[in-house]
Design brief:
This protein has 12 helices and 6 strands. By secondary structure, it is α/β, with parallel strands linked by helices. Strands 2-1-3-4-5-6 form a 6-stranded parallel beta sheet, sandwiched between helices. Helix 2 runs parallel beside helix 3 and helix 8 crosses helix 11. InterPro entries: CheY-like_superfamily (IPR011006), Sig_transdc_resp-reg_C-effctor (IPR016032), Sig_transdc_resp-reg_receiver (IPR001789), Tscrpt_reg_LuxR_C (IPR000792).
Length: 236
């Protein structure tokens, strides 16, 4: 027995193509639409057995608000989300909103049909491999790119950070020494240590690197923004 359904996708061409394929397989398509804002209203008014809801951004905040509205006003409607291979947050957000299933956009029509039938029967319709991939990512999250500014700050003592800020402001050795109350020779030593730790050959390069990585912004934000220092005490 065919399913009474609706296909909703922001891309009308995709919605109509899927609707046509399902009609040929004996299902009754009440509507194939691409309402970017009125999806929930349309589904609530037509009351299908199953709504296929397409999205290109399953992890984006608020993308499943229509599902929440549909399940609130028409709890008997089973919503199956069609989307890309999502992040674990995408799958979790879909089911948390009340969806009965999640099917990848590149699934064959037979897979979509199976998901529709399971959802109509009150079962969860999601590929076990998709869930396994999501759980694997949750348990073994991909490493995030390093924050270069934070990494560089960990290399410097608080006194060297102050020296770097003064270098970036264009102060020469004499002004650095006077501003910090240290001897010019000590200031010169601090500057050389900063250059060595940052891996640059000149004060201009150090200032440019600090600006590019946000190191100066972190330093200006105060001690609370600095990462824990490693190694021994600050140089005098």
């Amino acid at each position: 027995m065919g399913v009474r359904l609706m296909v909703v996708d922001d891309h009308r061409l995709l919605a109509e193509a899927l609707a046509s394929a399902l009609k040929l397989r004996g299902h009754r398509v009440l509507a194939a639409a691409a309402p970017s804002a009125g999806a929930a209203d349309l589904v609530v008014s037509r009351a299908p057995e199953v709504c296929l809801l397409g999205t290109a951004t399953p992890a984006e905040p608020g993308v499943f608000d229509p599902v929440v509205r549909i399940k609130r006003d028409r709890p008997q409607v089973a919503v199956v989300v069609l989307g890309p291979v999502p992040s674990p947050l995408g799958i979790a957000a879909a089911f948390a909103a009340g969806a009965s299933g999640y099917v990848r956009h590149n699934e064959r029509i037979e897979g979509v049909e199976r998901a529709m039938m399971k959802a109509r029967a009150g079962e969860a319709a999601v590929d076990p491999q998709l869930l396994q991939g999501a759980f694997t990512e949750l348990l073994n999250p991909a490493a995030q790119p390093d924050d270069e500014g934070a990494r560089l700050l960990q290399l410097l003592t608080p006194r060297e950070v102050e020296v770097l800020v003064r270098v970036a402001e264009g102060e020469d050795t004499r002004l650095i020494a006077a501003g910090m109350g240290i001897a010019p020779s000590t200031a010169r030593t601090h500057v050389q240590r900063v250059l060595m730790k940052l891996g640059v050959g000149s004060r201009l390069e150090a200032a440019a690197l600090a600006a590019r990585t946000g190191l100066l912004d972190r330093a200006a934000a105060g001690p609370g923004s600095l990462p824990p220092q490693r190694g021994g005490p600050a140089a005098p």
